[in-house]
Write a structure and sequence with these properties.
single chain; alpha+beta; five-stranded mixed beta sheet
Amino acid sequence: HEGKFRKRVKLGDGSVTILISAWNGEDKSNKKNARINVIVDTTLPKLALRSPAASDHGIIMCRTTTLEVTLTMIESYPDRVQIEDVEARQDGVYFTAVVPVNEDGKKVLKARGFDKAGNVAELILEVFRDTVPPKVVFEEFPAEVKGGKGAAVVRFSADEPLSQVKVNGQALPINKEGKYSLALDLKEGRNPIAVEVTDLVGNTGTAEASIEFLSDLMLSRMKDEEAWKKALEAYYASQDEFAKMAVMKEYVDKFPEGTHVLEAGQNITAGRKSRLPEGILRTFQKGIYLFEKLGVELALVPAGKYALGRDGGRDEEGPSHEADLSAFFMSRTEITNAIYAKYLNLTSATGTFAPGIVREAEVWKPAQGKDTEPVTNVSWKEAADFAAWAGGSLPTEAQWEAAARGSTAGPYPWGPAEPDKDKCNCRETGRGALAPAGSMAAGASPAGLFDMAGNAAEWCLDFFHADAYKKIVRGAKDPSVTAESFSRAIRGGAFSSPAPMCTVWSRIGLDPKTRMPWIGFRMVLASK
């Protein structure tokens, strides 16, 4: 029709060649041929997701407001792809489009792929936008580890699948169940635990914790500091120097390598000397002191009013009366052979008749096995010279009886019980010889003095008068019998004396030149 020709040709699937021939009139000599190759395509193209990867449930996860999606069209003659209303750019068989994902949660994207034959394929994409960081939950673990090697295991879990897990910068393998653990070697002090996890879309969650490791050394230091704190509190709260020294010593005994041992030692040294005469130190036993010059233990007899003598006894023992005495120190035992030998070597004393002391190679020393026995066979003057050289004196009778008796009613330093071998070395106890000084602790006086009854009788400072207690001024301050006589007082009885001669009020007197193997002495020192 008007030079145009049309014919409907039935085609099958696949490639078909159509031959077209044209000529004028009946003469076919001028026939011309043309071929048209036609491909018949009725097969729908297929779309497949290339990226991003979908989860096992076929869902694309993302956390941004846009999502770049790349699809593959499985088709010999692809044409174009649309995702929602966005035309994808083509790169061979790959089609990429950036589509908006503005809201959190699930969204469905519709993709359509067209081939050149006009066949259309559809693909539904499920997208889930997730901007919530993954949550890390620690399982229970110790906040504090005390002692030992300092090892701990930290366990935690996450509430969603993860792509990366780090603890203190150390990456851990991904666990599909979301449970993780890590063994830690703890350092002394605070050990921070920083967990950082990343989910499949890149959200990052963090959690922090810490474990305090108290090493054995730290625990020791803490105990040291706590003990020192308590010691200082007790030290400054007390007005008693013995108590103050005791708390410092307790600290040193418990922590011999402690941080504050030096300071404690300085406090002890200060306490030993505080408010005491030169050369006298406190010991750690309350009421007991040390005469540094000779290493002699002293007891402090406090100031006060003391009952002396008794009524109804031997004539020289009464009457009972009261004396007001200043405080004084008295040697806890009779002066021993060892101490007296030291005195002889330190002074110009010409010698001694004491049976317990010998001279060898120009040196005075105790006879074998006699070093702790009381020195005896000394005259009153020899005893008085020793005491004066030491800076003190022999005790007055009032001092001696107050030290022996204290506030007790007598008749013995320990009270009313009769002497026995644990309390007193006298005739009745059957020892029959001198005993080491201080060996009968059960017979100690209230002031802590030993052997005030028996063992060795003791010289006193006073002249002896049988009627001295009848003439003494009642309530006199620090009374002493100074009226001369041919005798000096002796108190306490000896190992050979009967028990009644060992009472606190028993008095005898002897010529001061007398030397007897049962007479010794002890000394007193002023407390100020």
